[in-house]
Amino acid sequence: MARTRLYRNGELEAEDFPLDDISEHLRSADSVVWLDLTDPKQADYDRVQEEFGLHQLAIEDALSPHERPKLMHYAQHLYCNAYAIDFDPESGDLAVHEVSAFLTKQALITVHAAEFDIDTVVRRWDDTAELAGNGVPWLVHGLLDVVVDGQYDAVQALDEALESLEDRLFEETPQAIRQVQQRSFRLRKSLGRMRKVVLPMRELVNGLMRAREGIVGDEMMPYFHDLYDHVLRVTEFTESLRDFVATILESNLAVQGNRMNNIMKKVTSWAAIIAVPTAVTGYYGQNLPFPGYEKQAGFVTSAVLIVILSVGLYIAFRRKDWL
């Protein structure tokens, strides 16, 4: 599928027109075209490459999945790659959607899979239509602004999930302990994937602002500075979550160590209590004469010793909170 839009002098003039009409529209210097490709094939790339003169290496990057977020400079255009992310608080999984874009003087070509919601970007453009006169920089800003806002929402949702996990660290039930361990591992894995796509966004946005082609004009520069500030906020938030996850893992290990110590104290205390009747009955079970030997008084004495010593140890261990 391909979507198109034509802006002329800052006004939306046409939409969803055929790709064959793009060349005609681009003949006018005051025209800006947006072309969106969803799950394109090699033939689609060949057609776009011929139409816009895109570099072969940029096409290869767009065809290759899981490229890192980056900004590449070519003679006729720029190429950038970014990732929109969605975090599921219930499962703790992170969904990553790759978005590629080719930037020319009069056109923005976006490439993505069907999972990416391009309608959100279109609505962002419609909400800021007063800036449409800035052409391609305005289109790029709207695209990256949606991506960065989604990243911030995902980081915030991950932070809330980690806080709820922290509250469950001291639950004593075996099921809760197992769930905390599984969820902490899943959230740590999601955070690792998030850092890989969030941290490089600083270089991408900064590269657009300082591009030698001078793609960002004076009117759009404050908006890109604001976008860069959002990127820094997401980056710092992500880095703080890294320390948060490390703290949770260390706290979980400490709690497990304390539980193990308590269990060992209880097992040792019960072993000491059980050792009392074992020692007494062993003493009275010897074949040598002793006070009360072969008399009922000997049995009563041994039984009383077992009860008194066992109860005494139980009370002493309870006072020390070992039982």
Automatic annotation (TrEMBL):
Primary location recorded for the protein, binned into one broad class: membrane
How is the protein disposed in the membrane?
Multi-pass membrane protein
What CDD domains does the annotation carry? TmCorA-like
Q: Where are the transmembrane segments?
A: 267-285, 297-317
Q: Which GO terms describe its molecular function?
A: cobalt ion binding; cobalt ion transmembrane transporter activity; magnesium ion binding; magnesium ion transmembrane transporter activity
Concerning InterPro entries, the annotation shows:
CorA_cytoplasmic_dom, CorA_TM1_TM2, MgTranspt_CorA/ZnTranspt_ZntB
- Name the keywords, alphabetized: Cell membrane, Membrane, Transmembrane, Transmembrane helix, Transport
Keyword Cell membrane belongs to the record: yes
Q: Specify the protein name.
A: Magnesium transporter CorA
